Structure prediction request, 189 residues.
Amino acid sequence: METDHGFVPDDLVFLVDFMNSTYPGTVDQLGSTDLFEAWLADQGRAAPVTGAQRATAQALRDGLRAAAVHNAGVAADEEAIARGERALVGLPMHAALRDGGPSLVPSGTGVDRVLGEVAVALTDARLTGRWGRVKACTGEDCGFVFWDGSRNGSRRWCDMQRCGSRQKMRNYRARTSTGQGRHRRSMTR
Prediction:
């Protein structure tokens, strides 16, 4: 599926959307049960939400986001990952016996099933070697989760024109203000 930040494989769109239910400068769509219910409805998965389900969803989402930061080559918040892994433990899903469909399927109803869908998408992405391409933008004050469709899987920014250019300019200014850039230029003359 084509998004504002490039292509995302169809089976990972909901996982990426779930991870982007917050990022710096946006409202945390899991910040309250009402916000979470509205977000679920917008996603075509309307369901009532309890406080415990919201907390589980938030822990899972924050753990996934921390892992996506790590996928982009930045040190991850290990505590957030640990909370996310604890959230995964209680999610309802089961293995399927028949070929031709997914080997792991979500079960349960409502929010529990939705979180099971997230866990199944994560598992599938990991088993197929695609999880490492789900990354959180390393641009200052961004953190948007995107699919890295580059040939070598080395993207660090959700968008080169916005976050990439800004970060490269910051790096350049930092080098030139410390004298590294001037020294480098004098060596090329």
